[in-house]
């Protein structure tokens, strides 16, 4: 008894001691006196209230803790499965095939691609053993297969080997690349030029190198696929003007300016993007008007001369030579070495600033391996030939006129490309007044025309497009590429074959 | 010349690389693309920049030749002997020897040739002459008009009757080139030289005295034996006949793949790395200090003044506080007492833009004079709708008693009498339904705000769980338990890249942000985990597991206090979970949940990996991926840009390395630019996939076709790796046969994992087929040499004490320099050695800030001596620059060179 009371006393002592230390410590906290006074007074006035507040505090702590510890797994759309169910679902799930097998039409489409045996040129040999007249390849100036070029290329191959084994920035640049860039710049009369190793990725790399989000691009509705990709990658604001319609362009430029003034938006970089000769239909841009408009509204001009470079102008310098506009007026002049010079790759010509900017910012330039040396030399050689023999281009123009003269008389087709008065390549031919605008039917008709012409020894091609991926669905058409490597007689003969094929196939349907 | 150099200078000024001084004016390569090449104005250099394990040059394919060397003391005269190789007579081309021809004299030739190779030589000869004469004319301005002149050149038609005369002509040309002095600008045998005629013999004697042979490039340091010489393949391919210097790049079956853990440098390296930064910072502070005192007008923005409170709630709005109203809500502070509250819509609200909230005076002033009110475009309606909707879902919605006529009008009206919220109420209640677009469906959970609350509570759970979990694991984290941004301190900036990469390369890749100076204080580099209400507890579990493992490896667990093992944390948090890795977990979730909302099953799942990661040299863990693929039926896309032709015992890339049937990989992508020394790339897969691509791929329809020489190069180099099956009978035409064989495509039996050899019909008929190429021993030799070089350099560097990243079998070897100041020095010291070595140095932003590195790209054409030379160079420079920071056993460089074979053959490096 005694011991227990003793121990109790100890306990009480301890309790009172700790209470006093707690109290003194509590009063050491600034403002604690106020709290104590409040609790005391409220307790005196209303003991029930103290109890209530105590319960409230406990409740608050409980809810607080509860909300923090219980994981809330049930998202709005999340379904809880147990492991077994998931396993079943996984077993059940069968993915669609990675690619759908080709339909018979698609197989026929793929099979209809002719394969050339041996070197390509104006008169290649096909797998069937037949030699045909080539109106399908973009070999306008007939540089493909030129002896001089071949010799230079072979020599380069011996000296340099083939691949460059690195992007231009990492020891991939060879002297011949610099040489070709210089040659192109001299040929066009610009300050500098930059070389890309693939024609398709040139323009789709040039546009995003300059145009960023928030910039304004005014582009033609009929631009080619590569430009469309470039516009997409640039993420700029794109305004479209009607295909090859300078009034529409002016209208759009005007409205952009008006809108800017109205919104008091800041000045951003602004670009006009269009093609010299349109890949889709062969129409030609009015370059002087373009330059005038760009100056008036203070835009920069990105001109894709993939088709026109090496096909128009006195010596094939393209639209700038044809219209006698200095190439320096075009801010970024993009061309294709693959089409114009029968080699490979593309270029962008412009001022030093424009070119040097791309050496760091052109994605295709920075990340792609440099083009093989022999192709660069072949292109340089091509430029030399073009420079020294203006007769090539006059032959080309004559041929174009000859073909147009024959095909213009065929009344079941229209030719939207630039009229024969000026040289125009490629010629795009579509059936006039088709039964209805039925893409599949028309493509089939045109394929029949192509097959018929091939049977008669003339190789032509449909203008192939990725249906569903292009910006606008264009009417199917046939594309003729006239070349200077054929004589006028041969061209006329080929045109007559094409004409006969059209009359036979489309006439039969009527 | 002037045109060239000015262009070169222009290119260099563009600063592709951080060390512009190193490459200025010297970037343009003048020579063939092999291993040795000449940088303009500099002596030949061994190239370690190209990704090609070998470059098959045209010459080597057309003209194979063998050499016999005689080593005549100091004179080092080369004695060449033409030999028959295989069925076709060999033709000697002195240009084939790597840089040798400038100093060799032809002693004797054995002329064995047939009519067609005579024609070949005739052409060679013609070219030679053309070049000589055109060069003579062009001395001064050769750059611009070269092509035209050549075209107008009258062709010489001197017929060469024997190989002997051809050869002597070549050597004469070389002798003339030498006599003319200067560095030959091209491959010497074909160099443009003057037209002085002299006897080759005395030119050689004469020039021997002046020439410097110490660079180790013109001649091997050790004279090669004749046996070695006879096995030489071609010009750019270094002599290496020692069969010991071979290795097979292959993953050992049954061994789980694990990458080599990266080492961190000691502190003083980091210290010095930062010293440069500190210097700059000190100068900046000094400038501020002086500026504030002496030019106060310009430094007003740095001077203190009485303040209004401006809270940037970019990270807290919508994430903190019981009602998601941000930090003021969290602390229960009346937000009317804060002068300006700024926040963003980009984070919690998943929209764009931001807001400023404050008193009406402030806002009105801002509307009138703020930049954004006046100049920038207004926010677009969809963005605003997203903001309104997400806010409403957090706030809950008050349904109106009656429908207003038009929502926007009602909104306008309500904004007229702005103070709709009574002054007393600190947190406004729910959003008026009139502020929402009428068409917006209002779910019950949104109206009563339970959806928003659920989100807030999930986020709060995730943040507390991760914060406390990490701390319990023993990591040092900063910040409040309830902060949705969780910084885990790494301190050592070297660990940043490692941590991030290890997280990323786990079976369940976790992407985290690592931040360092200047975003953080200098010493407290950190990983930042940003949590979302959309994370599940399993996600956080996985992060904790990953941190636990990586933390152990990197020694990050430095905090004091009680620690729990990771599984306990996960268990104790809520409940038990299986230990599945996150890719699997992700797949399970994705497959079981299906598409969001509709729960329709996904149509297909495509996993995209890189075979060999080019900056790190690590490999994708394919064995595990393939197992998962079997179970979860996803499609696999492997980018083999860096691994094809370089990895695996048969050079078929990473699938070959791991011994995986590549028919089970759905899409294989690769490039021809690296291993095959050509241009372009390929996609390989089933016929259906390829047909579909032909029809609907962009490149099939719109781009130009590849040119025949490029394709021939690819075919030839592939054939030399594969070996060739000779046909029983000769087909009529090679290309026709090729077309025919493509008709019945499945020539390869399904059972065979690695297709055998290339059909001879695929090769051009004129291509000489040496026996070594037909049986594939040539290709195998190349692959095995590359594998040896790769392993030797990787392990050698590690044994020297350098810190490198990546797998031992990766032909891309990154050597870490850390200090950015050392990059230029390293590159310059390598290039200005007696044997110049060209390397690529890479720094931020291609790598993390601290881990600046050199990238060595190995080739099969390098010999062991070349790699020895690199190791010696690295050893010396590494000592000077204090780069040897790795722990572990070190060997002196000579021991490494002596014990190279042993080093390479070790299964695991200790």
Q: What distinguishing features does this structure have?
A:
heterodimer, A: alpha/beta, Aspartate Aminotransferase, domain 1, Aspartate Aminotransferase, domain 2, seven-stranded mixed beta sheet, four-stranded antiparallel beta sheet, 15 strands, B: about 900 residues, alpha/beta, four-stranded mixed beta sheet, three-stranded mixed beta sheet, disordered N terminus, lipid metabolism (chain A)
Describe the structure.
The complex is a heterodimer of chains A (510) and B (910). Chain A folds into 2 domains: 104-143 and 390-507, Aspartate Aminotransferase, domain 1 (Alpha-Beta Complex), CATH 3.90.1150; 162-388, 3-Layer(aba) Sandwich (Aspartate Aminotransferase, domain 2). Chain A has 20 helices and 15 strands. Chain A has helices spanning 2-28, 32-45, 47-69, 83-92, 104-111, 147-160, 168-172, 175-188, 199-210, 225-234, 246-263, 287-297, 319-322, 337-340, 352-361, 363-367, 373-388, 391-407, 439-455, 488-509, and strands at 116-117, 125-126, 133-134, 192-196, 216-220, 237-241, 270-275, 300-304, 332-336, 346-350, 413-414, 427-431, 458-459, 461-462, 478-480. Residues 69-74 and 420-426 of chain A have low confidence and may be disordered. Chain B has 910 residues and is an alpha/beta fold. Among the domains of chain B are: 308-373, no CATH class; 450-574, Aspartate Aminotransferase, domain 1, CATH 3.90.1150; 576-666, Type I PLP-dependent aspartate aminotransferase-like (Major domain) (Aspartate Aminotransferase, domain 2, 3-Layer(aba) Sandwich), CATH 3.40.640.10; 778-905, Aspartate Aminotransferase, domain 1. Chain B has 32 helices and 20 strands. In chain B, the strands form 7 sheets. A 4-stranded mixed β-sheet of chain B has the order 11-12-13-14. Chain B has a 3-stranded mixed β-sheet with strand order 1-2-18. The longest helix of chain B is centred in the N-terminal third of the chain and has 28 residues, at 267-294. The interface between A and B is large, with 104 and 119 residues.
């Amino acid at each position: 008894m005694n011991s227990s009371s003793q121990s109790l006393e100890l306990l009480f002592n301890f309790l009172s001691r700790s209470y006093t230390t707690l109290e003194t410590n509590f009063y050491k906290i600034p403002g604690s006196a106020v709290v104590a006074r409040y609790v005391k007074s409220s307790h005196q006035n209303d003991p029930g209230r103290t109890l209530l507040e105590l319960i409230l505090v406990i409740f608050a702590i409980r809810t607080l803790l509860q909300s923090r510890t219980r994981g809330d797994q049930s998202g709005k759309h999340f379904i809880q499965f147990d492991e077994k169910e998931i396993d079943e679902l996984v077993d059940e799930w069968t993915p669609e095939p990675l690619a759908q097998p080709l339909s018979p039409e698609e197989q026929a489409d793929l099979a209809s691609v002719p394969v050339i045996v041996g070197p390509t040129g104006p008169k290649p040999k096909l797998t069937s053993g037949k030699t045909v007249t080539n109106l399908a390849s973009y070999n306008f100036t007939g540089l493909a297969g030129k002896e001089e070029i071949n010799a230079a290329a072979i020599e380069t191959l011996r000296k340099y080997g083939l691949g460059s084994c690195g992007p231009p920035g990492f020891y991939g640049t060879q002297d011949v690349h610099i040489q070709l860039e210089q040659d192109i710049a001299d040929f066009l009369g610009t300050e500098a030029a930059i070389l890309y190793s693939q024609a398709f990725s040139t323009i789709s790399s040039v546009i995003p190198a300059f145009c960023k989000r928030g910039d304004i691009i005014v582009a033609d509705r009929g631009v080619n696929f590569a430009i469309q990709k470039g516009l997409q990658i640039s993420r700029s604001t794109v305004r479209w003007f009607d295909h090859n319609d300078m009034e529409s362009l002016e209208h759009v430029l005007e409205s952009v300016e008006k809108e800017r003034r109205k919104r008091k938006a800041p000045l951003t970089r602004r670009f006009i993007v269009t093609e010299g000769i349109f890949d889709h239909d062969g129409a030609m841009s009015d370059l002087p008007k373009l330059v005038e408009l760009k100056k008036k509204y203070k835009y920069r001009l990105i001109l894709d001369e993939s088709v026109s470079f090496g096909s128009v102008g006195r010596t094939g310098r393209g639209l700038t030579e044809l219209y006698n506009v200095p190439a320096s007026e075009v801010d970024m002049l993009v061309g294709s070495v693959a089409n114009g010079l029968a080699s490979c790759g593309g270029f962008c010509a412009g001022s030093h600033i424009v070119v040097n900017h791309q050496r760091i910012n052109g994605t295709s330039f920075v990340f792609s391996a440099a083009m093989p040396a022999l192709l660069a030399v072949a292109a340089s050689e091509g430029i030399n030939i073009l420079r020294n023999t203006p007769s090539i281009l006059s032959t080309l123009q004559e041929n174009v006129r000859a073909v147009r003269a024959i095909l213009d008389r065929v009344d079941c087709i229209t030719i939207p490309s630039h009229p024969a008065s000026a040289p125009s390549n490629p010629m795009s031919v579509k059936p006039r007044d088709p039964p209805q605008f039925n893409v599949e039917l028309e493509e089939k008709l045109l394929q029949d025309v192509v097959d018929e012409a091939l049977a008669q020894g003339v190789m032509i091609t449909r203008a192939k497009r990725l249906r569903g991926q292009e910006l606008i669905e264009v009417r199917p058409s046939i594309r003729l590429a006239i070349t200077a490597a054929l004589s006028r007689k041969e061209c006329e003969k080929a045109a007559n074959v094409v004409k006969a094929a059209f009359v036979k196939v489309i006439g039969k349907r009527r | 010349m002037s045109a060239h150099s000015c262009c070169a200078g222009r290119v260099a000024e563009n600063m592709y690389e951080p060390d512009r001084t190193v490459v200025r004016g010297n970037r343009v390569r003048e020579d063939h693309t092999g291993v040795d090449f000449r940088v303009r104005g500099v002596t030949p250099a061994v190239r370690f920049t190209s990704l090609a394990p070998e470059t098959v040059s045209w010459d080597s394919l057309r003209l194979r030749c063998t050499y016999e060397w005689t080593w005549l003391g100091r004179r080092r005269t080369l004695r060449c002997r033409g030999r028959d190789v295989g069925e076709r007579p060999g033709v000697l081309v002195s240009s084939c020897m790597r840089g040798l021809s400038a100093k060799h004299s032809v002693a004797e030739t054995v002329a064995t040739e047939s009519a067609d190779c005579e024609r070949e030589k005739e052409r060679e000869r013609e070219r030679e002459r053309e070049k000589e004469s055109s060069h003579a004319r062009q001395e001064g301005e050769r750059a611009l008009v070269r092509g035209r002149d050549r075209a107008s050149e009258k062709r010489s038609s001197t017929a060469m009757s024997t190989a002997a005369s051809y050869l002597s002509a070549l050597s004469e040309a070389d002798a003339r080139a030498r006599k003319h002095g200067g560095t030959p600008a091209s491959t010497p045998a074909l160099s443009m030289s003057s037209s002085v005629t002299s006897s080759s013999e005395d030119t050689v004697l004469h020039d021997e005295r002046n020439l410097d042979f110490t660079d180790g490039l013109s001649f091997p340091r050790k004279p090669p034996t004749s046996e070695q010489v006879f096995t030489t393949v071609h010009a750019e391919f270094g002599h290496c006949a020692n069969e010991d210097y071979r290795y097979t790049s292959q993953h050992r079956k049954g061994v789980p793949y694990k990458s080599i853990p990266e080492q961190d440098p000691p502190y003083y390296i980091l210290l010095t790395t930062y010293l440069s930064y500190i210097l700059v910072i000190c100068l900046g502070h000094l400038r501020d200090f002086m500026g504030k005192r002496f030019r106060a007008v310009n430094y007003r923005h740095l001077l203190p003044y009485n303040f209004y409170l401006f809270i940037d709630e970019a990270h807290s709005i919508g994430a903190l506080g019981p009602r998601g109203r941000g930090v003021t809500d969290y602390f229960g502070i009346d937000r009317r007492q804060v002068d300006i509250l700024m926040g963003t819509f980009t984070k919690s609200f998943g929209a764009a833009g931001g807001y400023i909230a404050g008193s009406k005076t402030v806002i009105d002033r801002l509307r009138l004079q703020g930049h954004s009110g006046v100049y920038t475009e207004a926010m677009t309606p969809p963005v605003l709708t997203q903001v309104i909707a997400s806010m409403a879902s957090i706030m809950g919605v008050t349904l109106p008693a009656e429908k207003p006529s038009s929502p926007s009008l009602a909104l306008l009206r309500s904004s007229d009498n702005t103070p709709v919220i009574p002054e007393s109420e600190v947190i406004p209640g729910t959003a008026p339904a009139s502020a929402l677009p009428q068409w917006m469906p209002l779910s019950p959970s949104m109206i009563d705000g339970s959806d928003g609350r659920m989100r807030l509570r999930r986020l709060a759970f995730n943040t507390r769980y991760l914060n406390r979990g990490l701390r319990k694991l023993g990591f040092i984290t900063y910040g409040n338990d309830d902060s949705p941004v969780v910084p885990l301190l790494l301190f050592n900036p070297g660990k940043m890249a490692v941590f991030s990469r290890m997280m990323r390369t786990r079976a369940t890749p976790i992407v985290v942000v690592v931040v360092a100076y200047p975003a953080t204080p200098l010493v407290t580099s950190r990983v930042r985990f940003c949590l979302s209400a959309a994370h599940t507890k399993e996600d956080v579990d996985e992060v904790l597991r990953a941190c636990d493992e990586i933390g152990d490896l990197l020694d990050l667990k430095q905090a004091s206090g009680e620690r729990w093992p990771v599984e306990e944390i996960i268990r104790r948090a809520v409940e038990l979970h299986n230990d599945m890795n996150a890719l699997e977990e992700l797949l399970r979730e994705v497959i079981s949940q299906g598409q969001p909302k509709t729960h329709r099953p996904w149509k297909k799942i495509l996993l995209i990996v890189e075979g060999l990661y080019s900056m790190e040299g690590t490999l994708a863990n394919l064995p595990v991926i393939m197992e998962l693929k079997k179970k979860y039926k996803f499609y696999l896309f492997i980018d083999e840009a860096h691994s094809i032709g370089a990895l695996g015992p048969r050079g078929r890339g990473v699938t070959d390395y791991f011994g995986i049937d590549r028919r089970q990989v759905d899409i294989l992508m690769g490039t021809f630019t690296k291993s095959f020394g050509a241009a372009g790339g390929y996609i390989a897969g089933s016929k259906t996939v390829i047909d579909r691509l032909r029809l609907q791929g962009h490149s099939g329809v719109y781009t130009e076709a590849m040119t025949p020489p490029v394709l021939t190069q690819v075919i030839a180099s592939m054939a030399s790796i594969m070996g060739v099956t000779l046909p029983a009978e000769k087909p009529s035409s090679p290309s026709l046969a090729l077309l025919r064989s493509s008709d019945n495509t499945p020539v390869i039996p399904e059972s065979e994992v690695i297709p055998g050899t290339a059909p001879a019909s695929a090769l051009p008929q004129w291509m000489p087929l040496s026996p070594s190429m037909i049986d594939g021993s040539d290709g195998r030799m190349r692959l095995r040499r590359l594998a040896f070089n790769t392993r030797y350099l990787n392990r050698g560097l590690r044994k020297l004490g350098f810190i490198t990243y990546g797998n031992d079998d990766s032909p891309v070897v990154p050597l870490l320099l850390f200090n950015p100041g050392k990059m230029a020095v390293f590159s310059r010291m390598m290039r200005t050695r007696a044997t110049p070595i060209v390397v690529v140095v890479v720094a931020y932003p291609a790598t993390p800030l601290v881990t600046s590195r050199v990238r060595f790209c190995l080739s099969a054409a390098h010999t062991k001596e070349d790699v020895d030379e690199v190791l010696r160079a690295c050893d010396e420079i590494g000592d000077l620059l204090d780069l040897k920071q790795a722990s572990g056993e070190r060997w002196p460089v000579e021991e490494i060179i002596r014990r190279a074979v042993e080093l390479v053959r070790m299964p695991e490096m200790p």
